[in-house]
Amino acid sequence: MKLEGKKALITGGNSGIGLATAKLFIQEGAQVAITGRNQKTLDKAIQYLGPKATAYRADVTDSAARKDLFARIAKDFGHLDIVFANAGIAGQTKAGSTDEATFENIIRINLTGAFFTVESALPLLKDGSSIIFNGSVIGTLGQSGYAAYAASKAGLRALSRSLAADLAPRNIRVNVVAPGATKTPIWGPADENSPLVKAIASTVPLGRFGEPEEQAKAVLFLASDDSSYVNAIELFADGGASGTPFGGPAFRQ
User: Fold this and answer.
1) CA–CA separation, 88 vs 74, rounded Å?
2) What is the pLDDT of residues 174-191, one digit of tens each?
3) In the chain, what is the straight-line distance between the N-terminal and C-terminal CA atoms, in Å?
4) How many independent structural domains does the chain possess?
5) For residue 124, which phi and psi values (nearest 5 degrees)?
6) N or C: which end of the chain has fewer CB within 10 A?
7) Largest Cα–Cα distance of the chain, in whole Å?
8) Is residue 178 part of a domain?
């Protein structure tokens, strides 16, 4: 098993990519802490994940809640080997019709919250640990109406590179996984026959949405010793959307 004896924290681990990653980490031998803001989904996640997972209701953007969270993790886990800063939100910020509060909330959750999650985790992280941020292809590919989301995900790329430099003396690796369109609750009901899903899938070279379990495998690679010499990269798990944006079925007619 790739993570035998490891201890991992996954923020936003109560659904979507975070939940799939928690499941895979446990299958690979890790003990996992997950966080979320919704107690009902946390309870369901723990039922699904089993006894090697511990759930903490916490808002990682709240400094007091974050301090309490890491005090509890320190008591329950002792140390950490992996942090997957996965918690984030989407949200439209159309040019000409976006208020400051909406824009700043997306940045605060997706970028500021991710940084201070790592900042708070550093005293618990062992030398040689792995930190992974959950980015997005939208941090590279422009999308109308998503300026704040795109900026927050591009910010994670820059953030990870600076942190990789800061933490290199401790042999702590910092990387980003950048998912493309993936079947998660962030999209609402995943109806593969809906016009929107079909339209997006047609622009992806592999012609489909990704599965959360496929994203989890990319995170596992970055978390494990399989990537022991991989540092400060952005790993695109997007079916080719960023590498060949005109390679989808819609452009092959």
Assistant:
1) 23
2) 999 999 999 987 666 556
3) 44
4) 1
5) -95, -15
6) C
7) 58
8) yes
Each residue's pLDDT tens digit, 124-183: 999 999 999 999 999 999 899 999 999 999 999 999 999 999 999 999 999 999 999 999
Specify whether 229 is catalytic: no
**248 within a domain of the structure (yes/no):** no
Tokens of 62: 């709240």
Per-residue tokens: 228: 């022991």
Domain that holds residue 226: 7-191+211-243
Distance (Å, whole) CA 25 – CA 208: 25
Decide if 84 contacts 33 (C-beta within 8 A). no
Residue 81 belongs to some domain of the structure: yes
Question: Residue 201: inside a domain, yes or no?
Answer: no
CATH classification at residue 78:
3.40.50.720
Angle at 38 between CA 51 and CA 121, to 5 degrees: 65
CB contact set of 102 (below 8 Å; sequence gap of 6+): 91, 93, 148
Q: Write down the catalytic residue from 48, 146, 149, 229.
A: 149
| CA distance linking residue 131 with residue 84, whole number of Å | 6
What pTM was estimated for this model as a whole? 0.96
